[in-house]
Design goal:
152 residues, alpha/beta, D-tyrosyl-trna(Tyr) Deacylase, Chain: A, 6-stranded mixed β-sheet, two-stranded antiparallel sheet
Length: 152
């Protein structure tokens, strides 16, 4: 699984002009599911997101998690995180999980996350408009395949 994580003051996702999900503060997470990803990768990534210490403490140092600050997650499915440009300028998405399986994995991730934190979402495979006010900005890329113990 891959995620691009942005610390935000607010973020929202709209579909056909109507807001579908919005948060006032926390993490905007673009989430991609790759071939071979399963519950192990999902749980690992969720733990990283919820424990990621990128919010300021009283001294202004990044030392607090989204849980520590009472924030929320806005999860947006993003298969293009698996875009590969090795063979030219048009991305190949061969590394992304097949859509029906990816939807089930994404839904499972959302369910797991909602058991631990407030979560808003976009709609899987929808044409979405994402708006955000980045805080910092702070942007982190997380890839389960590149992390210890997660190789397939």
């Amino acid at each position: 699984m891959r995620a691009v994580v942005q610390r935000v003051l607010q973020a929202s996702v709209a579909i056909d002009g109507a807001v579908h999900g919005a948060i006032d503060g926390g993490l905007l997470v673009y989430l991609g599911v790759g071939k071979g990803d399963g519950p192990k990768e999902s749980e690992w990534l969720l733990g990283k997101l919820l424990g990621l210490r990128i919010f300021a403490n009283a001294e202004g140092k990044m030392d607090r998690s989204v849980l520590d600050v009472g924030g929320a997650l806005l999860l947006v499915s993003q298969f293009t995180l698996y875009g590969d440009l090795k063979k030219g300028l048009r991305p190949s998405f061969e590394g992304a999980m097949e859509p029906a399986l990816a939807r089930a994995s994404y839904d499972d991730f959302v369910t797991r996350a909602r058991q631990r934190i407030r979560v808003e979402t976009g709609v899987f495979a929808a044409d979405m408009r994402v708006s955000s006010v980045n805080d910092g900005p702070v942007t982190i890329w997380i890839d389960s395949e590149k992390s210890a113990g997660m190789s397939r």
